[in-house]
Amino acid sequence: MIRKYKKFKLSRPFNWLIFEIILPDLSEAIKLYAKGKLLDIGCGEKPFKSLTEGYIEEHVGVDHNETFHDKGNIDIFGSAYALPVEDKSFDTVLCTDVLEHLEEPDKAINEAYRVLKPNAYAIYTVPFFWHIHEAPRDFYRFTEFGLRYLFEKNNFTVVSIQPLSGFIVMASQEFCYYLWSGRRVLGGKWSPFYWAILALIQCIQYVALFMNRYDKSYQFSIEYLIVAKKNASDRNA
């Protein structure tokens, strides 16, 4: 079984499974909807920039000064609530796993709407079943119904809300994180238990990747992919 995204910037021995699941669908959404000047909100180190190459003309990353990530790839420093760019100045918005870290996701979605041109698309990923991360700035998890409400409330037309896994991937990936977080209790890299846990983690991920072909329990999705469109008639927004 080939791991197509094994060299992805965020991929690690304990979590490559989630990227093998998420990136194909995110890549397809970018291929279909991204164009022109793209604003990457909460860009961090711009790990998804490679997915946009060939589809857009410019990739502009915005993030805040207190980000946990390396700031070397940030083009603009600012808040998702008050983006330091003009109205209707971008053809695409990309926002990956950011909304859960915002106290007011509703306000951030409205701000994304402001900076998009009419008929432009926003592409988001957000977690549903996922552990606490980047604490203490981890506030929410989203259902598909809550997502639809938030985007439609802020005048977007929802094109699609897509679950990205079933129960097997969700449970397997979380179990791998659990095992990885406890590996040091059994000793460092010179301990046979360390390598046994690493081998188990790899096996779990490969099995889950295979079983995902048949698992349709999307009510347990690890994450959602949302594509939303700014209305062509909304010339004043």
Would you write up a description of this structure?
The protein is an alpha/beta fold. It has helices spanning 16-33, 49-52, 105-115, 144-153, 167-181, 192-211, and strands at 37-41, 58-63, 76-77, 90-96, 116-127, 156-163, 223-230. The protein has a 7-stranded mixed β-sheet, with helices on both faces. Helix 2 links the parallel strand 1 and strand 2 (58-63). Helix 1 (16-33) packs parallel to helix 6 and helix 5 runs antiparallel to helix 6 (192-211). 37% of the residues are buried.
The N- and C-terminal alpha carbons lie at a distance of 47 Å
Main sheet makeup: 7 strands, mixed
Mean pLDDT: 92
Which range best describes the helical content: under 10%, 10-25%, 25-40%, 40-55%, 55-70% or over 70%?
25-40%
Count of individual helical segments: 6
Tell me what portion of residues adopts beta-strand conformation.
15-25%
Radius of gyration: 19 Å
Q: Segments where pLDDT lies below 50 for 5+ residues?
A: none
Tally of strands = 7
